[in-house]
Write a structure and sequence with these properties.
mainly alpha, 0% strand, elongated
Length: 137
Amino acid sequence: MSVRDLPTLNAVLNAASALLLLCGYLMIRSGRREAHRRFMLGALVTSTVFLASYLTYHFQVGSVRYQGQGPLRTLYLTILLTHTVLAVVIVPLVLVTVARAWKGDFPAHRRIARITLPLWAYVSVTGVVIYWMLYRL
């Protein structure tokens, strides 16, 4: 695998994280706590591997400029801005959410997870959208 393959890997990891988050959500809604825990830990691992791969790629390549013009450029920049801001916000939210579950403080875990889950899912899904717009359009 070369550095040129990392954007595709990153998109796959983001998609996998989004899918694992959805499965984790569905499991907790159906009362399957152990399955929920496994899916959420899987999402945490895939997101962590994504972050390492993303940083590796950008340390070696630098930033990649979007080449599109017009309304698509505006759409891309809007998605990129919201994605970037929430990607920074989501790291401490995930860490606090996981720490509360780890400690067994499930009422506090539930309260913050209601905020963390949709933001984390948004960051994962928009990561895939950004990949498609940047490398596939």
